[in-house]
Amino acid sequence: MVPRNKMPDVFLKERYEKDIKYIKITDVYTPNYNQIPITPKFYSKYETGQFDEIDLEILKELKYAKDMLPSEKRDWPETTNQIYGWWSQPLVELNKMDSRFYFPKLESEITKHGLNMLLVKNPRNR
């Protein structure tokens, strides 16, 4: 019989041993390209395993879809999110000499804080 004051130690030891036995910690996740997928798509005509012939029309469409930006493929944005980056030229030319419209921020709060921390670490740089 285990004394009452030693009970938590025995429980924690048993718990630790079970964790070591049943839990495997993985810190690198890479796909296994040599393994066949567990659930193939039975309805797909492309997963038959026959790669002798390549349809050049499909290959051309895939390359077109992959290589071109949406603004190069279409004249107008299709979704609301595409509107934000569709027209990249400004509507009015920016005059950098006009301080009413051009006022760049030279330092932000986080860069000031970072510089102060660096100076505190190395007092010779003050």
Write a brief caption for the model:
One of its GO terms (cellular component) is cilium. It holds the Pfam family FAM183. This protein has helices at residues 7-22, 56-67, 70-73, 80-86, 109-121.
Report on the architecture of this protein.
- By secondary structure, the chain is an all-alpha fold.
- It contains 5 helices and no strands.
- The chain has helices spanning 7-22, 56-67, 70-73, 80-86, 109-121.
- The longest helix is centred in the first third of the chain and has 16 residues, at 7-22.
- The radius of gyration is 31 Å and the shape is flat.
Q: How widely separated are the two ends?
A: 67 Å
Beta fraction of the residues? under 5%
User: What structural category arises from helix and sheet content?
Assistant: mainly alpha
Q: Which whole number gives the mean pLDDT? A: 78
* Share of helix, binned: 40-55%
Radius of gyration: 31 Å
User: What is the global morphology?
Assistant: flat
Q: Element order, helices and strands?
A: HHHHH
**Which segments are poorly predicted (pLDDT under 50) over 5 or more consecutive residues?**
none
Major β-sheet profile: none
> Tally of extended strands?
0
Count the DSSP helices.
5
Subcellular location: Cell projection, Cilium; Cytoplasm, Cytoskeleton
Family: Belongs to the CFAP144 family.
InterPro entries: CFAP144
Keywords: Cell projection, Cytoplasm, Cytoskeleton
